Amino acid sequence: MFRLDGKLEHILRRSFELVTTVSVGFKVLGMATGIVLLLGLAVILQVRARLQAELSASLEARGIAIARDLAARSADPILTDNTFSLYQLLRDTLENNPDVRYVFLLDPDGSALVHSFDQRVPPGLLAVNPIADGESCRVQIIETEEGLITDIAVPILGGRAGIARVGLSQRSLANAITEATWNLVGVTALALAFGLAIALILTRLLTRPVLELVSAAKRVEQGDLSAKARRFMNDEIGELTSAFNRMTESLQRSQADLLRRVDEIGTLNATATAISGEMNLTDIFSTPPLRKFWKC
Questions:
Q1: How many other C-beta atoms can be found within 10 angstroms of the C-beta atom of residue 73?
Q2: One digit per residue, pLDDT tens: the chain, 296 residues?
Q3: pTM of this prediction?
C-alpha cells in the first residue's frame, strides 16, 4: 500500500509539473477541449439511454399489439382446424411487419400448430417465455445469433386454444440508436471545433499583453529602464501593464538620483583627499572635482 501511495503521489506530482510548464494558450485550449468533450459525452450517454428506453418500449408495445391481433384472429381457425387460414394469417403478419422474425402458434399442450420457420420450431425457443395462467401477455428478451429478439407470448382464448408467439428483432432499434449516436458525435465534433476556434481567439487576446509584459521585463533586466509595455486592454492585465510602466519610470528616476549622488560623493571624496594632503587652498580648488566651485 505504501508503494502504491508513493507511486500515485509521484504520478500526481509529475502531472502537476507538466500542467504548470505548459503555456497559457495550451491550458486554455485544453480546458475548452475537456469541457466540450465532457458535455458532449454526457449528452450522448443520456440521449442514447433515453432513446433506447423509448424505442424498446415502443417496440414492445407494437409487438404486444401484433401478438394480440394474431391471437384474436387465430381463435376461429384453431377451433375449426383450418390450418390453411392459420398459415395465411402467419404470412400476413410477417409481410405487414418487417421487424417480426418469427411467428408460431402453440396448442394448449405446448406443441407447435403452425410456424414460420423453414423446418421446425427450435426446441430451445419453445421452452423460453412461458406464460402463466391468468397472464394477458408475457415479454422476454432473447439473445440469438441474429441479435436480440423481443419475444411476446399472448394466450388464445385465455389459453384454452393455445398461445400465440411473436418474435421481433431489435436490429432496427439498434440501427436507430447507432445512427442517433453518430449524429450526436458529429454535433459534438462541430461544437468542439467551434469551441477551439473561440479558445484560440481568447488565447490570442489573453497572451498578447502578457507576452508584451515579458518582453518589456527582459529589456529592463538587460538594463534598459526606458522599456515600456503597450496596454491593450482595460482589465486586470491592463492595470498590471500600467503598474509595470510606472515601476520602470520610478526606476529611471531612482537611477538618475543615484547617479547624482554618486557624483556628489565623488566630489566629497576628492575634497577630503585634498584636505588630508599638503595642498594649499588654491591647489585644492584647482582639482577637477572642485574647480567649478572656485571663485576668483
A1: 16
A2: 444 466 767 676 776 666 666 676 777 777 888 888 888 899 899 999 999 899 999 999 999 999 999 999 999 999 999 999 999 999 999 999 999 999 999 998 888 899 999 888 888 888 888 888 888 899 999 888 888 999 999 999 988 899 999 999 998 888 899 999 999 999 888 988 888 888 788 777 777 777 777 788 888 778 777 777 777 777 777 777 888 888 888 887 887 788 788 877 877 777 777 666 555 555 555 555 545 544 44
A3: 0.62
The DSSP symbol for 288 reads T
**Cell triple for 72:** 384474436
Strand ranges (DSSP E) for the chain? Answer: 100-106, 112-115, 138-144, 147-156, 162-169
| Distance between first and last Cα of the chain | 93
Q: Are 150 and 59 in contact (CB under 8 A)?
A: yes
**3.30.2130.10, 3.30.470.20, 3.40.30.10, 3.30.450.20: which CATH number matches 46-177?**
3.30.450.20
| φ and ψ of 110, to 5 deg | 90, 10
Residue 112 near residue 125, CB atoms below 8 Å: no
Q: Which residue has the cell 420457420?
A: 117
Are 164 and 153 spatial neighbours (Cβ–Cβ below 8 Å)?
Answer: yes
Does residue 115 sit in helix, strand or coil? strand
For cell 500542467, what's the residue? 19
Which residues 6+ apart lie within 8 Å of 157 measured at CB? Answer: 75
Kind and range of the H or E element at 294? Answer: none
Sorted by sequence, the CB contacts under 8 Å of residue 205 that are 6+ apart come out as 233
Record the cell numbers describing residue 178, joined without a space.
Answer: 447507432
Task: Take residue 261 and report the three cell numbers written for it.
Answer: 549622488
> Domain locations in the chain?
46-177, 225-291
Q: Which three cell numbers stand for residue 54?
A: 423509448
